[in-house]
Design brief:
The chain is of the alpha+beta class. It contains 2 helices and 2 strands.
Length: 70
């Protein structure tokens, strides 16, 4: 979750919530490659919340890449 956005001239910093345990791709692999619908919904909602905060701060995400690691 994006907690705060700092912008100064041409530089931007995102203060993000620390989540222990690695990234989403590793979590998905650890869960056997699929997530229960409720878990997937919760994760998607958190991602959307972070993007919403970035947009409300007047910034736009340049690129959101979805990858799949085997």
């Amino acid at each position: 979750r994006c907690e705060r956005v700092l912008a100064d001239n041409d530089e931007v910093a995102f203060i993000m919530e620390y989540v222990a345990g690695g990234d989403l791709a590793r979590y998905l692999v650890a869960e056997g490659g699929t997530l229960a619908p409720a878990v997937a919904f919760e994760l998607a909602a958190r991602i959307c919340d972070g993007l919403d905060r970035i947009h409300r701060a007047g910034l736009a995400d340049a690129f959101l890449e979805l990858t799949r690691e085997a």
